[in-house]
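[step 3/7] fold_predict: job queued, chain A
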Amino acid sequence: MMDEFIYLNGQLVRGFEARLSPFDHGFLYGYGLFETMRSYNGHIFRLDSHLTRLRCSAESVGLTHSVLITDDGKQSLKAACVATLAANRLKDARIRLTVSAGEGDMTPDPRTCPSPTVLITARYLDPLSPEKYETGFKAAVSFLRRNSQSPLSRLKSTCYMENILARTTARAVGCDEAIFLNEQGYLAEGSATNVFLVSHGELITPCFESGVLPGITRDAVLEIARTSNIKATERWVQLNELIEAEEAFLTNSILELVPLVSVEGRIIGTGKPGKLTGDLLFAYRRLVEEAVK
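[step 4/7] structure written:
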């Protein structure tokens, strides 16, 4: 795979030619951000939304380089994502855009980083099997907690160790995903997903104040609900509400909407994907089709 094309700081290079500084603050200190996107038939779904989220996140953590926060910079990154996809001759792919503070001193001082590192990769995406959408995901509650007071909880940061530890622990006990509660014990999100549940016909998802990432797919699902006259609420959610829900599902750009059928071994609803989950997945895929055709 090292002969694939990678976008690195303004150029498309082969993977084996790519070089990153050992003094990059993204590597040394996790001072960076990323976006994971999915392309369908050669079109990156909601690319502008991903870049807008990146731009807002960059400003919030002091990555104020013009390539990240100006309108021209946003267009430049958009063109770079499209070019990387095209250079690898991919139609259905997983695209990752990573930015860091760049090379600086060995001490954690971003003032010593004059230019950011911008890295874009694209690889063929083998989507989740249809069978998995029929059986659904199982989740375990992580022993780690989201800090709802930390700005990092709302950013897609390269400080990803907690997410990796949570998912690794969940998979060790036969689960597909880990669920985070926040420091107050309220439901937050999955290690790489947003969480939705259905109770009395109402669609519910934890609010941003709970310490959740503003997911692009999460936003799309809420848009679909509004246009379909489905009551949807963003609020503080107790864990028992998820376990006692009629149905539940998880969202992200790669998985789309995948049913959640159990948490900590306790069955949600009938233990099978729910009707509203299926309807929303169908509507989401229609939304994708309209956007990329």
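[step 5/7] annotate
The chain has a mean pLDDT of 96.
The two ends are 29 Å apart (CA to CA).
exit 0
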